[in-house]
Write a structure and sequence with these properties.
alpha/beta, Rossmann fold, 7-stranded mixed beta sheet, 7 helices
C-alpha cells in the first residue's frame, strides 16, 4: 500500500536533511522509565555513538556497549567522559558480545540487522533472572494500521525537526552517522516470533516508524 506520493517523500527527505533529529534518541528517556533506578550490569547492543550507554552508566555499576562499526565506536569512546563505567566493544556477531548475565539489555534500531530469532534467544540467555530487556526496533509497513501511523508521523516528524533545531538548519548529529538498512520483518511477524522466544513480551507500534518490546525475565 502506497499512501504518500514520491513528491511528498522527496520533500520530506529534503526537510529532514535540513532539520535532522535522532528518532532513536527520542526514545531514550522512555527506555530509562522501563528500568530500575539502580542495577549492576547492562548491555547496550548496537550502541552507536554511545548516547544511551552513557545514560545507562549513570544508573549502572558497569555498561558493556557493543557495535559493529569501528568508526562510530571510536567516536563514542571520545564522547564518553573519563571515569564513566562504559566499555565499548566492536563486534558484528550476536554470538560474540561480552558474556553476562546482565540485569539490563537494550537494543535500539539494531536488531533488524541481525537474525531476529537468534538475537532474541541470545538476549534471553544472557539476561539475569529479574532482568529487563528493552528493544526499540524498525519494522516493514504492511497493514493499514502501519501505513496510517506512518502518515500521522509525517507532520509530527517535521514539527519535531523544526523544534529540536530551533528553526535553524543544522548538521546531522554524530548519532545519525552510523550505517543503516531497511527492516525486512513486518510488525505481525515480529510479534509472533518474539512471543515464541519471550513469553509475555509486551510489544507496541510507536510513532516515528518504530516499535517497542519490553520483556522481564521471570
Amino acid at each position: 500500500m502506497k499512501i504518500l506520493s514520491s513528491c511528498v517523500l522527496r520533500a520530506l527527505e529534503r526537510f529532514n536533511a535540513a532539520y535532522p533529529w535522532d528518532h532513536n534518541a527520542h526514545y531514550h528517556r522512555w527506555i530509562l522509565r522501563q528500568l530500575p533506578r539502580r542495577f549492576d550490569l547492562a548491555l547496550d547492543f548496537g550502541s552507536g555513538s554511545g548516547d544511551l550507554a552513557r545514560l545507562l552508566a549513570v544508573r549502572a555499576d558497569a555498561v558493556q556497549a557493543v557495535d559493529p562499526d569501528p568508526v562510530i565506536t571510536a567516536q563514542a569512546q571520545k564522547l564518553t567522559p573519563a571515569g564513566l563505567p562504559v566499555t565499548f566493544t566492536v563486534t558484528d556477531a550476536i554470538s560474540e558480545f561480552p558474556v553476562g548475565p546482565y540485569n539490563v539489555i537494550t537494543c535500539v534500531a539494531a536488531i533488524h540487522h541481525l537474525p531476529f530469532h537468534q538475537a532474541l534467544t541470545r538476549f534471553r540467555r544472557h539476561l539475569a533472572p529479574g532482568g529487563t530487556l528493552v528493544i526499540v526496533g524498525l519494522s516493514r509497513a504492511q497493514t493499514p494500521a502501519d501505513h496510517l501511523l506512518g502518515v500521522v508521523a509525517v507532520p509530527a516528524n517535521a514539527a519535531m525537526g523544526w523544534l529540536k533545531n530551533k528553526g535553524r538548519p543544522s548538521q546531522r548529529p554524530v548519532s545519525m552517522t552510523a550505517p543503516t538498512r531497511s527492516a525486512d520483518m513486518t510488525f505481525d511477524d515480529i510479534v509472533r516470533e518474539a512471543r515464541e522466544v519471550l513469553p509475555g513480551a509486551r510489544l507496541r507500534r510507536r510513532l516515528f516508524w518504530r516499535y517497542t518490546l519490553v520483556w522481564n525475565h521471570p
